[in-house]
Amino acid sequence: MSSQMIPEYYGDDYRSEVPRFQIFLNCYNCQRPSSRYLQAIPPEITTEDELIESGLLAKQAFLCGKCECPIGTITGVKVEWISVPY
Ligand SMILES: [Zn+2]
Predict the structure, then answer these.
(1) What 3-state class would DSSP assign to 48?
(2) Cβ–Cβ contacts within 10 Å for residue 72, how many?
(3) 3, 59, 62, 67: which could join 72 in a potential S-S bond, CB 3.0 to 4.6 Å?
(4) How far is the CA of 58 from the centre of ligand 1 (A)?
(5) Higher model confidence: residue 30 or residue 85?
């Protein structure tokens, strides 16, 4: 009978790199392309696929800077890793 205690290492607790998501949209009305960075993405989302599956994109408010149309069509998502100082 042996009960093994396996220490769990979580590695570095802090992150020095965080994903930053950029989405590309076309205005539904005037078709003007634009892009923006998403804010407040949960830390467990680190890929484009996870972002799309999370449904967060549907909750993004959009307002065309040119014609003020509130409807945007998402044409692409890009993730980049940026270094943040801790
Ligand atoms: Zn527009």
Answers:
(1) helix
(2) 22
(3) 62
(4) 18
(5) 30
Start-end of H helices in 1-67 = 48-54
* DSSP structure class, residue 29: T
Q: Which backbone phi and psi does 45 adopt, to 5 degrees?
A: -95, 115
pLDDT of residue 31: 97
Number of domains in the chain: 1
Residue 7 corresponds to which tokens in the numbers above?
């220490």
- Return the amino acid letter for 40: A
Question: CA geometry: angle at 47 spanning 23 and 21, to 5°?
Answer: 30
Domain of residue 65 covers 12-25+60-72+82-86
Q: What is the 70 CA–ligand 1 centroid distance (Å)?
A: 8
State both tokens at 63: 């307002």
